[in-house]
Amino acid sequence: MSDIKKSIAHIAALEELAQLNSPIHRLQPSVKLIFTVIYLVMIISYPPGSISGLLPFLFFQVVVMTLGDIPIKPILSRLLFALPFPLFTGISNVILSREIVFYIGDFGITDGVISLTSILLKTILTVTAVLLLIATTNLYDLIYTLIQLKIPSVIAIQLMMTYRYISVLLNEISVMYHAYRLRAPKEKGIKLKDMGPFLGQLIIRSFDRSERIYQAMKCRGFDGTVAYSRRSNVKKVDILFLIIMVSILVMLRFVNISEVIGNLFL
After folding, report:
1. Maximum distance among all Cα pairs of the chain, rounded to whole angstroms
2. Which of 28, 143, 185, 211 has a CA positioned 20 to 30 A from the CA of residue 243?
3. Residue 244 CB: number of other CB atoms within 10 A?
4. What is the pTM of this model?
5. 202 by DSSP, 3-state: which?
């Protein structure tokens, strides 16, 4: 049960970071969202096997963490959950692509190793960018920004409710697991034969809880739209930030800074 409580605490940690007051936090949410989307597009646009071109993009994340007073530990702890998927995908390239591209001493670097490194680096850059956006922007600000950008309100509300309901679902799991441990104190976990009934009860309780949440929302006047009172206008400093950062992104995409610096020293 302690692991479940840690998961709930991890979810709340990013929301607490979003309440800080720093130059990055004070930027208009739409500016941060647009910049993050452009950043992701730039990273994804690199061809497979690109490594040197991607490395300078770490600069933006260092700047955001520094100016936003974002500790690296909560970001890394969430990043580790995303790494196994690209790792297993890239391992197949290591096995199948064995053509040696260059040597480091006596050790040959194959095309598969380069591909694996590129996939992992892209994953680190993209996932960290999204985590930093969440850690520096209030959830409701992001949802309202999506609606301002003409994203259908149904999709925006679904994103908000899904994110909010994760902690509710984890609380239900915590209560059920605690009840199970009281009935089977000598068991270290849930038996395989009890897993089916446990999941079935979880689904039933989740439907019941979601219905009660929806009824409570209707009693408070929810009509399917997002009521938002804290609106902030785009300032000149926000536009200046977006222009400068996007210009740097475009330059890094078409000029390989790593190769330029390497050629200067070599």
Report:
1. 71
2. 143
3. 10
4. 0.78
5. helix
Predicted local distance difference test score (pLDDT) of residue 1: 47
CA distance 170 to 176: 10
DSSP for residue 186: T
End-to-end CA distance of the chain: 56
Q: What is the three-class DSSP state of 208?
A: helix
- CA nearest to 61, candidates 145, 154, 124: 124
Distance CA(238)–CA(14), nearest Å, equals 23
* Residue 245 contacts residue 60 (beta carbons within 8 Å): yes
Write the pLDDT tens digit of every residue in 20-47. 888 888 888 888 889 999 999 999 888 8
CB 259 within 8 A of CB 52: yes
Instruction: Report pLDDT digits (tens) over 55-85.
Output: 888 888 888 888 888 888 888 888 888 888 8
Residues 129 and 61: beta-carbon distance below 8 Å: yes
- List of long-range contacts for 88-94, beta carbons under 8 Å, 24+ apart: 89/119, 90/115, 90/116, 90/117, 90/119, 90/120, 91/116, 93/119
Q: Taking the domains of the chain in order of start, what are their residue ranges?
A: 1-151+232-258, 152-227
* DSSP alpha helix (H) spans, the chain: 2-17, 29-44, 58-67, 72-82, 84-96, 111-136, 139-148, 153-183, 192-219, 236-254, 257-265
